[in-house]
Amino acid sequence: MQREALIELDRVSKRFGRRVALDSFSLSITRGSVVGLLGPNGAGKTTVLSVVAGLARATEGTVLWRGRPVASPFPSELRRSMGVVTQETALYDELTVRQNLRYAADLFGVRDRDGRVAELLQLFGLADRARDRVGALSGGLQRRLALARALLHDPDFLILDEPTLGVDVEARHALWGHVRWLRRTGKTVLISTNHLDEAEALCDRIVVLRNGSRLTEGPAAELLARTGRCIEIDCLDGAALPLRDRIAQLPGVTKIDATEVALTVHVANGSSTHAVTDTALLDEQVASVRVRAPDMVEVFQSLAEARDGGD
Asked: Using CB atoms within 10 A as the burial measure, which of 75, 124, 210, 224 is most buried?
């Protein structure tokens, strides 16, 4: 049974003067799903989130909520159905953790304010920091607090703009855990990120943007499969370039990035990596060989090249 679309963008464009931030962009987000927006800085991710949240008015096109067109600014009932975490956490540094949550709860008219604040402090591991000034917290803890604040009024739909920006690895994985919890509780989440591993870990579906337009979309595993595999080869000084010429002739090799001491060989989806690894390992000038999945930049470049080649 197909799930209901909670919010949709239908051929939305957004211009700032002469700059086109979104170009006839469409998106459908079904209830209970986690959708990721992936792309480099300037691709249009934050603009999409702003239009979806009602913070920016579309220049052209239509925004639909549960199948009905809505215009910015959104009505209060719709805004109460959303929780938003922007790149800038916009917390009050001079107030304590608890005071920040109490203040936000009052703005949203949350019933049993203190009980709800205590619940979220516990849930996000902030109970022992409740009396600390927010300005004294680490970036990771501030991100946790911003997410807790967005959940105070129990919204159906969460919008997260690069929620792990500027935090360390431990804090990043803690925040991932909270987003997974949101998925398990049936919340709908739209998240933007620059990191493929983050999108892969959290999202049911990924929409890849380039220059304000959709490049492609699909589950993370499908996007990775389209890109193939990468083989990193470390060589002794000056040995990489001669090896590159031999490997370039092997089946399945689509691209080689080379320096004098290293090669990154891209092998197409469905092609074996063995020919490349065997050739490299037989070369006495090779120090190490490693096969890995492509990173976000490599996936984006591969998808862009495939699209441009098909135009």
From this structure: 124
Mean pLDDT, rounded, for 230-259: 94
Contact 265, 278 (CB under 8 A): no
Phi (first) and psi of residue 154, to 5 degrees: 55, 55
Residue 74 lies inside a defined structural domain of this protein: yes
Q: pLDDT band for position 309 (50/70/90)?
A: low
CA pair distance 235, 289, nearest whole angstrom:
9
Ranges of H-type helices in 186-285: 196-202, 220-227, 240-247, 274-281
Give the pLDDT confidence of 3-14 residue by residue, as tens digits. Answer: 789 999 999 999
The answer as to whether 167 is a domain residue is: yes
Does 125 share its domain with 270? no
* Average pLDDT of the chain to the nearest whole number: 91
Query: What is the pLDDT at residue 220?
Result: 82
User: Based on the domain organization, do 169 and 259 belong to the same domain?
Assistant: no
| Model confidence, pTM | 0.82
Sheet holding 253-258, edge to edge: 253-258, 262-267, 229-235, 286-292
CATH assignment of the domain containing 137 = 3.40.50.300
Q: Do 13 and 20 contact (CB within 8 A), yes or no?
A: yes
pLDDT band, very low/low/confident/very high, at 111 (cuts 50, 70, 90) = very high
Share of the chain above pLDDT 70, in %: 98
User: pLDDT tens-digit profile of 69-86?
Assistant: 998 888 888 989 999 999
Report how many domains make up the chain.
Answer: 2
Q: Report the Cα 179 to chain-centroid distance in Å.
A: 12
Helices (H), the chain: 45-52, 76-79, 97-108, 113-123, 139-150, 169-184, 196-202, 220-227, 240-247, 274-281, 296-310
* 172 part of a folded domain: yes
User: Angle, to 10 degrees, between the axis of helix 139-150 and the axis of helix 97-108?
Assistant: 20
Give the C-alpha separation, 83 to 278, whole Å.
52
Count CA atoms within 13 Å of residue 248 on its CB side. Answer: 11
54 Ramachandran zone, left/alpha/beta (phi>0; psi -120 to 50): left
